[in-house]
Amino acid sequence: MNTKQVKSDRNDLNTAIIVGGLVIGWLLYDGIRTLVQLFATAGSVTVTTRVPAQEFVVGIGAGASATVDTATLTVEDVNVVSVVCLVLAIVLRTACLVGVTALGVLLCRRLMRGAVFDRVNSRLTFAMSMGLLAAGLAWAWFENMGLNGVFAALGGEFDGQWMLLMDGMPLFVAAIALGVLVIVFRRGTSLQRDAEGLV
């Protein structure tokens, strides 16, 4: 590999590491902001969720007809279990995404040192894939449990479970993509070990 290509690769990996650090900072900020918003009103919880479609007039200019299917609700008397579930949805999603990003930064650092096809990189990539899957599933599960309690406090019933799973779809797709990379790393490790055995 020529020197120009090596320098280009190092620059790309350095950029990825810097971006990873910024992403971790943003994820922590967003998680804290969401937790603060959840308890923004004393004695209540505030959540943004899908609601049955409703038509109303938006106060823009002379007014315009609109249909809304998402609303921010501030609800009192939500049971403790549901509140804990809403907190866990935020905390677990944030923790998983921060962990995945940190592993990605570690993987980039290993690639910079020339460690490409080895078991450690395979394990890091596998852990990243599972972390993304956990982020999507844990968030959807606990968010659903929490919203059930919020809607129950309002005398209604939450029926947007499938939409929560759809909201997590980008994470599931990313988890599958990383799963493919795991196969690539494992195959590369195997081929490299076979090549070394022939030397």
Describe the structure.
- This protein is of the alpha+beta class and 199 residues long.
- Helix content is 71%, strand content 14%.
- It has helices spanning 3-38, 80-112, 119-153, 161-167, 169-198; strands spanning 44-58, 64-76.
- It has a two-stranded antiparallel sheet with strand order 1-2.
- A hairpin with a 5-residue loop joins β1 (44-58) and β2.
- α2 (80-112) packs antiparallel against α3 (119-153).
- The longest helix is centred in the N-terminal third of the chain and has 36 residues, at 3-38.
- The two termini are 20 Å apart.
What is the strand and helix layout of this fold?
Elements: H1 3-38, E1 44-58, E2 64-76, H2 80-112, H3 119-153, H4 161-167, H5 169-198
What count of helical segments does DSSP give? 5
Assembly status: single chain
Order of helices and strands: HEEHHHH
Q: Structural class of the secondary structure composition?
A: alpha+beta
Mean pLDDT: 88
By DSSP, the count of extended strands is 2
Radius of gyration, in Å, reads 22 Å
- Overall geometric form: elongated
Strand content: 5-15%
Distance between the amino and carboxyl termini? 20 Å
Tell me the major beta sheet.
Answer: 2 strands, antiparallel
Taking pLDDT < 50 over at least 5 consecutive residues as the criterion, the unreliable ranges are: none
How are the strands ordered across the major sheet? Answer: 1-2
What helical percentage do the residues reach? over 70%
